[in-house]
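Q: I'm writing up a methods section and want to include an example of the input and output format. Could you take the sequence below and give the corresponding predicted structure tokens, formatted cleanly so I can copy it straight into the document?
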Amino acid sequence: MKKLKRLFLTVMSIPIFGQVGINIDEGTLPQNTLHVKGTMRVDTSPANTDLSTGNWILVDSNGDLTKYSTNTVQLANRSGQLYVQGNIKEVTANYTITANDETILSKGSSNVTVTLPDPTSAENKGRTLIFKAFGEGNITLSSTANIRLTSSQNLTKVLSTESAMLRANATSGVWEVIHYNN
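A: Here is the clean output for your methods example:
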């Protein structure tokens, strides 16, 4: 009996770190600390009905939960209004992109130079910038990284009446033109 007690106490004193599987198939091991197959409900989280604030938790294609901040999410309502978390900046002189800028409009008659941030920095990873030249002037794009229009051609200017949409590619260290309207 003493040996059984000693064995029981020894086993119970070892810290146990495990994974829990709820409703997973028999013979399947949990893939994370908590692995749930099926729907889930959380009753004690504070409700937030204002979609423009706070964070969201979404399920990706692998079934993993990912936290998203509304600072990076664009929302639309049923009436078709689009809410964008980012500035629309009208420029008439040379300008350096700030952290909140998303759309840059040039409506003046003179040329302007817009300096882009580093596409490899963490805060710019996947960031999208839109440029539109309405007036007679052009927008010259200035960047320490390439602004890739094609695999062999870089974009340096958005001419009058043109528009361009760029996305930061942190992996290759460039701004990629994902839409260009000339």
